[in-house]
Design brief:
InterPro entries: HyfE-like, NUOK/Mnh_C1-like
Pfam families: Oxidored_q2 (PF00420)
Subcellular location: Cell membrane
Shape: globular
Structural class: mainly alpha
Number of domains: 1
Protein name: Hydrogenase 4 membrane subunit
Largest sheet: none
Radius of gyration: 17 Å
Membrane topology: Multi-pass membrane protein
Number of helices: 7
Amino acid sequence: MTMLDALAIGMIVTSLAVFGLRNLKLSVIVYAIETLLLVGIFAMLASKFNASQLSMWAVVAFFTKVLFVPAILLWLIKKLNVVSEDEPVGGFFVSPVIAMGFSLAIAMSINPIFLQFSLIQEKIMLLAAVCVFMMGVFGFMLRNSFIKQILAYCLFENGIHLSLALMAYNSNELVELGILTDAIFAVIIMSVLAIRFYKAYGSLDTSKATNLRG
């Protein structure tokens, strides 16, 4: 197993932790660690394949996704004075198992297809990219906490970012800038919505917004 493979597996493990941990502050910290692993992958790929674009991706991702986004979320948690999430759909134990099981199954099923279009032929990293993306998708489906759903968005954005690095790292710099800008503004907007939701319902449990249902 190479160091790149180890970092990719680390991203899978940390995505499970972000999804499954009940403590919100700890979940944000683990997300920052996962993104730091992503930055490490960018840096190592840049060196291995002489891809200067990925070096820039690593620098920008470090400041925006390792530092800035977690800082926003930690500020949000402190402002709302919340410690942990309410019980999610399926319970605290079952939902992470379901999410990881289906995420790995989907990743393994479509990994051969992705490999055909990938500039960098790294099976485990492509598997990790899809798995992390799907953990984010399941986070939206199975977690009720508004902050957990913001983290779910951050997870599948990390998955997209890694898959783009493997499949199209030579794309225009504007693509990378667009991804990072979208991520930052999305987190800011969702944080504002979380504050307004908390003021309206006294909770971050999105399942309590019954009056929004059709």
